[in-house]
What we know:
Elements (H helix, E strand, L loop, with lengths): L2 E2 L10 H11 L11 H21 L6 E4 L2 H15 L5 E5 L4 H12 L3 E5 L9 H7 L4 E7 L11 H10 L3 E5 L18 E5 L10 E5 L25 H17 L3 H18 L3 E3 L10 E6 L4 H10 L2 E2 L1 E2 L1 E4 L2 E4 L1 H5 L4 H5 L1 E5 L6 H21 L6
Parallel strand pairs: 1-11, 3-4, 3-5, 5-6, 6-7
Antiparallel strand pairs: 2-8, 7-8, 9-10, 10-15, 12-15, 13-14
Amino acid sequence: MIIYLDNNATTRIASEVLEAMLPFLQESYGNAGSGHVLGHLSEGAVVHARDQVTAMLGCSPAEVLFNSGGTEGINHAFRGVFEGSLGKRHFIISAVEHPAVMAICDWLKHQGAEITILGVDGEGRLDLAELEASIRPDTALVSLMAANNESGVLFPLEQAAQVVKGKGVLLHVDATQAMGKAPLDLARLPVDLLNFSGHKFHGPKGTGVLFIRRGVRLKPFMLGGHQERGRRGGTENVPGIAGLGKACELAMGHLPLAGAMAELRDQFEWAVRSTIQGLHIHGASAPRLPNTSFLGFQGLEGEALLLKLSERGVCVSTGSACTTGQKEPSHVLRAMGVPMELALGTIRVSLSRYTTRDEIQTVAGMLPGIVEDLRGSGLYAKA
Length: 383
Ligand code: PLP
């Protein structure tokens, strides 16, 4: 039996999503650009999905660009702004952004851009005063994530948008983790660009959206045909788009149940806190996504814990990456100032709407024994 608690990595596709996709993989396989009946059916599916996305985002259809996911949306936003920003070469990001943001910023640096990286506090929170002070006349873009993929910590987007838009600077939001788990209303939130991926909230992999607010001029990312108003060439992934639209519709219906998910997560945290010594929950006192728990265990290696859980069919992830054979704490934990040993002993547990109370109780029940065994074995990482 599998207990899947790695939903910030990816999620199981909803059966309704699969159902919405199947016709466009089977009998209705026309190119959305074709003038015949099958083409029209595909085009209709894209129009319908765009409406489903706009209903969720609170924007208009022309502001929605379908793409392959978060990484593409991030690359498009940064490169598009850089190439169109006459003389403005300064970009601001936070220290806990996704590696896709870090990588595109590295690339931009080599093209002559200057990057300011904002720190976070021990709970992963952003300092709005630091954000305000870092904005300059030549700032082209501020990019902030809505929710962190490791800790689940939410950035205060409304206040950040006030600061950034108050200074007349473009604001990009990476909403890949927040979408479908936390409310985001673009009719109220004055962001210029926002990206997300379908597979993080029970949609298909390889699908996503870049929201481009009306009036924001962004260079196309992929040159080719006229698809997506010439902003992204290439035959539309109609089954994927239909699935993504359905995932948005379903997520809207489930958002009011976020409180129940947070309650389940909190019960899990309460159970492990009361049975395991030397446990720290990163970001627990900051506003967080309802589904994420980022747990640091003193005196054991997160990787070993992941493997032991995996042997029992439980899927989680760690807060470290293996670079050139060396275990390194994630840049998120480093930015939060988490001591090396605790960082290397960190795992991420992320729930979905399909996670049951039984599953949570089972995992909370097996953790103390595994942790005790691992600590007893002495096989843990030292800083
Ligand atoms: N941004 C965040 C916050 C993410 O968590 C992820 C994926 O984990 C991405 C961007 C990239 O999304 P994708 O892998 O779907 O391109």
